[in-house]
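Re: beginner question about structure tokens

> Can someone show what the tokenized structure looks like for a real chain? I only ever see the sequence side.

Sure, here's an example I had lying around. Input first:
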Amino acid sequence: MDSETPLAVPPNTPPRLRLRDITKRFPGCLANDAVSLDLAPGEIHALLGENGAGKSTLVKILYGVQGADSGTIEWEGQNVDIPSPSAARALGIGMVFQHFSLFETLSVADNVALAMERGTGRDPDLLAEIKKLSIEYGLALDPTRSVHELSVGERQRVEIVRCLMQNPSLIVMDEPTSVLTPSEVEKLFTVLRRLRDEGRTILYISHKLQEIRDLCDRATILRGGKVVASCDPRTETPNSLAALMIGRAFDGPKPGKPVQVGEGVPLLSVQGLSMEADSPFGTSLKNISFTVRSGEIFGIAGVAGNGQNTLLAALSGERTAPRDDWVKFEGRSIGRVGARGRRDMGISFVPEERLGHGSVPDLPLEENALLSGWGRWGLIRHGLISRGKSRQKTEDVIEAFNVVSTGVGAAARSLSGGNLQKFIIGREIMQDPKLLIAAQPTWGVDAGSAAAIQSALIELARAGAGVVVVSQDLDELFTIADRVAVIFDGTLSESRPTQATSAEDVGLLMGGLFEGTP
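And the corresponding structure tokens:
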């Protein structure tokens, strides 16, 4: 059997899992509206939908994190209740989360032992089982290594091995490739196809629609909490899948006029920047140099954990550089200028973490807009906040970026991930920055929202601003960036015009194959 070719599920195969009329309400929101779904043995089944469509709520119900208000769950032909994750695991349901749930100071084996309630990671039988299973599935791991020593790709292996150690019949995978290099993605797909061929069921959630076409046998699409379509994704295109998700034609981000590399005015210049990481598990910067010009989007690719956080802190002013002249803006040395001072100069920043860094979770959108925009929008006069103007600016962001919310008084945490990201991006762009630095601008964002965000970044650059995008998503960088460089182990490669390189070449650099490496 060719494991690279997706299998068709036999038409009369009884479902392993059957959800019927699952409904879940939250205050002011019907998250799941009579959702029904069948998952068969031996299939990879995609669950698609915009941010806020109800995917996360449905998966949490399936894994016992939340309870449904009504509806039934049938497992292997029997009606069941799933009151907790441990009950889900006992049935044979495993989950690999988008955000790793590992203890960095513990070993691989200790993390597995905690999940399996099997004492400590020093058990020789457990160590042998981890080694055997990781070798069997091509997920090589040393169970004695501490998690903080592992690359992001290796940590993903730990999550998968920990799940497989519980011998699940159904594995839920939430955005599993968002932190992987292209070669690591292919290795993961090989493992998933093998698990499918063994008769296991995989429920696969991803916003990368080409992945869905390459990997999945069937797809179920949610919109507004309801099942609106099911299809064979192999017969669809990424745009047709996106259209099913958003309910209208989808054309992707609108590219602007290509710029000639080097034709803009230099805005940001970083020369010889070296900086120690501010945490024991961070990555220090080593002699980073690059220039960003007006009218261009400069992309920085890299697997998470290679110094991006340290670099972003140095660029935003949240950490000042050891030398003032290592960072310059419009010819002025600003290495020791803080974040507020840089904002006053026209530099805006979109951090990777939406809740807690990009926004205050419990504050309303109006106050979250005020926190960032009060200076450039002139919202404070004589020490007093202009509430009317603040409310109007917030409404302008919500309208311009199609942010789905209950209004300016909605708490940031009440928005879906994609809508909160659109709000944060819009809040910064509508301050007309000279330079925008954006970290992972569309991470975990649905296709429609991602296209809107990418189009807004392109429009900002073509209007004359400089844009720095730090992203692990190569498709995104090749869609919007004029030039791209790669950060690896705190070192930045030479930049290349995106039109003169390939995703494969950049993927090799992300794996550390810089010029001169063995």
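Each token stands for a local structural state, so reading them left to right follows the chain. The chain is about 35% helix and 25% strand.
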